[in-house]
Amino acid sequence: MLKKIFFQIHWFLGITAGLILSIMGVTGAIYSYEQPIQKWLSPDSYTVQAENRDKLTPVEVYQHFHQTTPEMKINSITIAKAPTDASSINIVKEGARKGYNMMINPYTAEILPEVKGKEFFQFIQQLHRTLTAGAVGKQITGACTLMLLIFIFSGLYLRWPKKHSFKQWFMLKPQLKGRNFLWDLHAVVGTWVVIFFLIMACSGLTWSYGWWRSGLYSVMGVEQPKEKRGEDQGKGGERRGNREAGPRGEHASGAPQQGPAGEHQRGGEGEKKGLSPEQINLALSQTWTGFNAQVGRDYSSVTINLPKKADGEVELTFMDAVPQHERARNKATFDYKTATIKKMDLYEDQKLNEKIMGSMLPVHRGSFFGPVYQFLAMLAALAMPLFFVTGWMLYLKRRKQKKLTLAARNSLTAVNIDANAKPWLIAYASQTGISEQLAWRTATSLQEALQPVNVKSVQHLTLDDLKNTTQVLFVASTYGTGEAPDLASSFAKKVLSAQVDLSHLHYAVLALGSREYPETFCSFGHRIDEWLKQNAAQQLFATIEVDNGNNQHIQAWNAALAKVTKLELQAMNIEKTFDTWTLAQRDLLNPDSLGAPAFNIELKPKHEVVWQAGDIAEIQPGNSAERIASFMQKYQIQPNTQVDSLQIPIENALWDKDLTLEVEPFANMDHLLEQLNTLPAREYSIASIPSQQVLRLVVRQQSDAQGQLGLGSGWLTHHTALNSDIALRIRTNESFHLIDDNRPVICIGNGTGLAGLMSLLHARIRLDYTQNWLIFGERQREHDFFYQSTIEAWQTTGMLQRLDLAFSRDQTEKIYVHHKLREQAQELKAWIDQGAVIYVCGSINGMASDVDQALIEILGEAAVDQLRQQGRYRRDVY
Predict the structure, then answer these.
(1) Residue 303 near residue 76, CB atoms below 8 Å
(2) 105 partner at 20 to 30 Å CA-CA among 142, 362, 440, 823?
(3) CATH number at residue 810
(4) What is the pLDDT of residue 187?
């Protein structure tokens, strides 16, 4: 449930905030390289021809401009040490709160050409921070940055597995197609950039919200600088007039290193404080000479702020010869009256947390961590639109699929109905959903022929429904050894035992089953047919049997229905499209067991895959190489004979064909293949959940009288090599799905039936639900306690509240799970009174029927029927 909530939040915020974040990502990537780009565009502004003389000192620069343009008010002067680097001055300019930088020739004080691209980067900056929409835009970008944090953590949670695979997490899979490729691109690239986005979001929010900035200072253990007096306070403690100010009053625009904007622009040259040009000359001269003599370290540039007060102090900032980043400034105060450095704060002496909080812009753009990280951060920012685009495409595909599904289900009202047509009632009895699927497809086929149709599960079908209709179609599965599906048990007991006049009723039955159980094949469908006949209902056509979802049998139903109704009905079938999985692991679970070998089978997908605890894995089994060779020898087929229509050798085409059938003489390989049916699929309960990144099965080897391994078990446990492909599809098993709340669950099973119970328990424990009771039976504890370490760990940690084990061969008298159930009868009643849901998985011969009888003895037949109807008694038995 939590994962569903996170998923809904993730996609909803993605389609709402994704465009804004894409804009912020692209503009941020461009803006992070503002200085290099400007230097590349304006080489004449930043570099000069080196001359064979010293650069002008700050006092000489000041004197030059005081003489040539006395109206110019200078805030600061920056001198770069490299011979070819320009110097700069920062002057007072109306509308420029931080002053205006001018690049000058360091040898002549000539003003160099204007830096190109300033207006462009100012626009990019505003687009990045406020979408050029002022205060409203700032609130939007701030909110979207908060959403980015939600994306990061929800995305990680949605991907987080219990078993970590580097390839699954970090490797793109270009062989994927369509939606699977989009999801892989979205998730894998998202994992690559998660650390970059996390740092960008956490640092970027310091300019959006005062409460975030204050909280970050507290978390980092750094004292937050006090706001300067006299400045207006905006909402959230932000300075209204300083929208670009970051922590410690940094100018977030990233002024050129050679000429950082001066912090003392008001008044310029100190004139409002009464300093004369002569005093400024003296201060600059003494400071320049004394600072260089006493600093004791190399530097790349130094900025001297013109003094405001006649207190003998001049403030300087200087950059190390190789600074950590563009804001790694050292600060000094020079007393020119005593010719000493009064105070010096070196950047390298700061603690890491102080450096981070004092350099938030470099942290945000990535330069704080070095040029390689900054480049990768820039690429990550540029990738932001990728998530917006792929997220939207995934959303639209998912929405389209939901619309198609809804349309199929609601198609009964989608067209005009023939007013003269008699209504059809279609009733289905389904255990795993196949009968329900066929009922709806039959309904859609009739509805397309303008027939009114009503579809109903037999658990909701009453005798009055049958009395009040004239045409009914039953689609009924046979479960277990000839039983009704669990939810149809009440219908079987109450309705099929009643005597009622149905002479007005015309009916047909589609019976589903498996010929692997010849004695009970389609028996529940035939039972419905017999009951209808006994009550004088009129058969439209003979009951049609469907073996394992065989499409030819389904088409026979469609054709018979079309013939009797004289309607043109569209073809219908059950699509069985198998995906390709990899057989990643195979472990023997019960060495030296008295029973047949049982294996832990682990398969990994090559695509995005989702299933729920309790679902079924359908495997397309294949023939062993020996069986194929024997068949070819029998029919004198030469190896590597080509199948013309498929352009593959016949050996490859026979891998999934039923080779036990006798075939007629064939003219070619295509003719041969036409006579061979595809091997029936095999179904296995899934023992894992998707977050474990592996689909786990428990498969026991089955053998026939000649010792030949069964198709499914042989294929998975013996014939297929590790890392080979397996054809598999997930089939939802809604009747065995986990409840979505914290009611207690009682899991009962034996042998390989533990698989279905393990998936339920994994899901419950993932949700931190602890009211779990497992009753499991096998032969010997020493050899047959499947997944013992996991189950005992759950018990030790309190995630499995009760564990009862029945190992039948560990004592003289055989003990089975139904004995344990009877021993714990009072405890069972207590759990049922608390709303517990019972899940039974395993062999229907013996275990499931014995458990059913024990429950009836303990709780009463009416109570057990009520549990079934309430969905509190669920079975996956075979």
Answers:
(1) yes
(2) 362
(3) 3.40.50.80
(4) 81
Does one domain contain both 849 and 805?
yes
Q: Which residue is it, tokens 């400024």?
A: 280
Looking at the whole model, is its pTM more than 0.70? no
pLDDT tens figures, 404-428: 445 445 544 445 677 788 999 999 9
Strand 299-305, strand 313-320: pairing: antiparallel
Q: What distances in angstroms separate CA 484 from CA 77, 650, 850, 866, one per listed residue?
A: 92, 42, 17, 16
Is 81 within 8 Å of 28 (Cβ atoms)?
no
Residue 66 contacts by C-beta under 8 Å, 6 or more apart in sequence?
269, 277
- The last residue of one of the domains, among 530, 565, 600, is 565
Using CA atoms, how far apart are residues 424 and 505, in angstroms rounded to an integer? Answer: 11
- What's the structural domain count of the chain? 3
CB distance 824 to 804 below 8 Å: yes
Q: Is 592 left (phi over 0), alpha (psi -120 to 50) or beta?
A: left
Three-state secondary structure string covering 598-642: EEEEEEEECCCCCCCCCCEEEECCCCCHHHHHHHHHHCCCCCCCE
Q: Which of 218-227, 306-315, 615-624, 828-837 has the lowest mean pLDDT?
A: 218-227
What is the distance between the alpha carbons of residues 425 and 715, in angstroms, rounded to a whole number? 42
Q: How is the chain split among helix, strand and coil, in percent rounded to 5?
A: 45, 20, 35
Q: What six digits make up the tokens of 654?
A: 């026979």
Share of residues in the chain with pLDDT > 90 (%): 53
Contacts of 813 (CB under 8 A, 6+ apart): none
What one-character-per-residue DSSP string does 387-441 give? HHHHHHHHHHHHHHHHHHHHHHHTGGGSS---TTSPPEEEEEE-SSSHHHHHHHH
Shared domain for 727 and 744, answered yes or no, is: no
Please calculate the CA angle 103-109-110 and round it to the nearest 5 degrees.
70
User: Above 60 in pLDDT, residue 177?
Assistant: no
Same domain for 454 and 465: yes
Q: Residue 614 belongs to what domain range? A: 579-731
Report the pLDDT averaged over residues 593-597: 93
Pair of tokens at residue 456: 């109903």
- Region 708-720: mean pLDDT is 90
Residues 448 and 469 in one domain: yes
Residue 356 inside a domain? The answer is: no
List, in sequence order, every residue forming a beta bridge with 303; answer none if it has no partner: 78, 317
Specify the CATH number for the domain of residue 505: 3.40.50.360
Question: Is the distance from CB of 644 to CB of 670 less than 8 angstroms?
Answer: yes
Asked if 810 and 872 sit in the same domain, the reply is: yes
Is the pLDDT at 243 greater than 50? The verdict is no
pLDDT of residue 435: 86
What are 104's strand-pairing partners? 87, 111
Closest by CA position to 558, among listed 434, 449, 455: 449
Domain boundary among 731, 746, 772: 731
Question: pLDDT (tens digit, 9 = 90+) per residue, 452-479?
Answer: 999 999 988 999 999 999 999 999 998 7
Residue 102 located in a structural domain: no
Unique residue bearing structure tokens 């008699």: 422
770: its two tokens: 């602890």
Residue 66 lies in a domain: no
Residue with the bigger pLDDT between 855 and 246: it is 855
What angle is formed at CA 101 by the lines to CA 98 and CA 103, rounded to 5 degrees? 170
Residues 583 and 559 in one domain: no
Residues 614 and 675 in one domain: yes
> Is the per-residue pLDDT at 258 higher than 80?
no
- Asked, for residue 583, whether it belongs to a domain, the answer is yes
Q: What is the CATH number of the domain that holds 707?
A: 2.40.30.10
Q: What is the pLDDT of residues 646-705, one digit of tens each?
A: 889 999 999 999 888 888 888 889 889 888 888 888 889 999 998 888 999 999 998 887
**Same domain, residue pair 721 and 740:** no
Q: What's the first-to-final CA gap in the chain, in angstroms?
A: 29
| Lookup: tokens for 662 | 């006798």
> Rounded to whole angstroms, how far apart are CA atoms 150 and 18?
12
